[in-house]
Structures are given as structure tokens and as C-alpha cells.
């Protein structure tokens, strides 16, 4: 398993330069490190911010599970999507509203076939809301299929 968390992870994270705004580090409530967030007041409605995880050492023809914590806090805060590099057109995961301010867990299976996915993109789309934030944390990549809950 590879720890891609922002505070102590070994992974290669890049801000997209063709988007509308950057993700920013935000301090965790417990004080142990930080997560990446997009506050609701950044940018205009439908603006996009993309944070890319570069996967350089994945073995072709094997499966991986990407597990991450996410939070959509605030009314009409926007959408969080995840894209794999080899499937640019459609997101492999999307969430558009938080039921509450709690952190939840997302899981995505990455199947490496003839073309390997060399990056995962977390995309935040700005909503109409003025309060809250979209956050991502504790990104971990494990080999094999995603475990059941």
C-alpha cells in the first residue's frame, strides 16, 4: 500500500495549470497534519480546480484500489469528481452534495490493462454556495481489488 496523504505521503501531487483555481492545504481539526481543500468562496460558479496524483510506478496489467477521505461541507458547495488519465471523458467517481459535514470514504478500482492509468485527477467544481468547502485527505493506493466495507 502506498500512502499518498498530503502531510507525509510519498506521492507526486501536481496542481493543474489549465484550471481556474488551486487546491490549498487546510489544517486538520485534530492538529495532525493537513488535507487539501477548496473553500466555497473561491472562484465563480462552475469554475474548476484540479489536483493530479501522478502514478509513475504502477505495474501494468494489475489492479489497484484508490481509497480516500472526502467531505463536501456547506449548501450548494459544488461537485467533487475523480478522473483516471486513460478515461478522460467521464469521471469514474462523482459526489455533488454532502448529507452533513462529516468525512466519508471513497473507493475506486483502477484496472491496469493495455493502457495504464498514469494519473488520478481530483476535480472540484464550484457551486452556488458561499460557505463550506470541498476537502480530500488520506489518499491511499493498495494493490488488488477494493476491500468490502
From TrEMBL:
Q: Give the SUPFAM superfamilies listed for this entry.
A: Concanavalin A-like lectins/glucanases
CDD domains linked to this entry: MAM
The domain of life is Eukaryota
List cellular component terms (GO).
membrane
Note the InterPro entries from the entry: ConA-like_dom_sf, MAM_dom, MAM_domain-containing
Q: Which Pfam families match?
A: MAM (PF00629)
Location of the MAM domain: 2-148
Q: What PROSITE patterns does this protein's entry cite?
A: MAM_2
- Tell me the protein's name: EGFL6 protein
The organism of origin for this protein: Machaerirhynchus nigripectus
Amino acid at each position: 500500500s502506498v500512502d499518498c496523504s498530503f502531510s507525509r505521503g510519498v506521492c507526486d501531487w501536481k496542481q493543474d495549470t489549465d484550471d481556474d483555481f488551486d487546491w490549498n492545504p487546510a489544517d486538520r481539526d485534530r492538529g495532525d497534519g493537513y488535507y487539501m481543500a477548496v473553500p466555497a468562496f473561491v472562484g465563480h460558479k462552475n469554475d474548476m480546480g484540479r489536483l493530479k496524483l501522478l502514478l509513475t510506478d504502477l505495474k501494468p496489467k494489475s489492479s489497484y484500489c484508490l481509497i480516500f477521505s472526502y467531505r463536501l461541507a456547506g449548501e450548494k458547495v459544488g461537485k467533487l469528481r475523480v478522473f483516471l488519465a486513460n478515461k478522460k471523458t467521464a469521471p469514474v467517481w462523482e459526489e455533488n452534495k454532502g448529507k452533513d459535514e462529516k468525512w466519508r470514504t471513497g473507493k475506486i478500482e483502477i484496472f491496469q490493462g493495455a493502457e495504464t492509468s498514469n494519473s488520478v485527477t481530483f476535480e472540484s467544481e464550484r457551486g452556488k454556495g458561499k460557505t463550506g468547502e470541498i476537502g480530500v485527505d488520506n489518499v491511499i493506493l493498495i494493490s488488488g481489488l477494493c476491500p468490502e466495507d
